[in-house]
Amino acid sequence: MEQSVESLVRLLESYRGRDKVIRTVCYGSQLIGGFLSRKAEADVASHRLGKSLLLFSAQLSQCRTVLRLFDDLSMLAYSHGYGLGAGEEDAGVRWISVLTNVADQLYYPCEHIAWAADAELIRVESGKWWLFSTVLWGTSLLLGIFRSLRVLLLLKKNHSDKISVVYFSCSRSWLRRQMQGEVLSIFSSMADLSNAIHWMPPGFLWAGRFPNWLVGLMGTVSSLIGLIQMNACDSDQSDSMYSSPHSEA
């Protein structure tokens, strides 16, 4: 018990860890609140609790948006460090990653402008900027799925050849962990992408059709996978389990 508390404290002491915890609580509250608020009006207590949880979730989401006001520089440093991906041995992975970094970098100013407009700090229409940020987020997620699929193909080839042809030499257990990590990344990105499409303008696929509990479910699944991956990355320092600084908006 004490070790679990210490692990949670260490997680909360880091910005990245705290953001993942807030995100998980945010979507978890939306999931439970969405279920409870759907109950009949006769069950006043449950309905009221559900509404409160939805409001709490909205406040946590706003908190994360404000905290992301300070992420531009870290994203820029990440993009600059990666550059054109000279360290990548596969051209497909390299250019997908470069495009992902571009989408991620553009995401931040769009979201900042939308937030500032809603806060009445600037006089612009926030709707189109929220749309731009959602499109960029969805693009980043889609590119992340393509990247993970490409990495899986390379890892399977590596596994079948039993030698490193594209990536460096590694053990079978390392390959298994990497493949599991990429599969988790795909599921996480797909869950987030389903929400990104829901927040697009009506008429685009299933935009606007998700009830609150389903948005919460998709976000909770993605958030829990993110926590699992973070724990795996901290213990394994894996480079293939890619996660951009904002990929969990």
TrEMBL record:
This is Peroxisomal biogenesis factor 11 gamma. Keywords: Membrane, Peroxisome. It is found in: Peroxisome membrane. GO terms for biological process: peroxisome fission. Pfam families: PEX11. GO terms for cellular component: peroxisomal membrane. The keyword Zinc does not apply. InterPro entries: PEX11, PEX11C_met. It comes from Monopterus albus. Its main location: membrane.
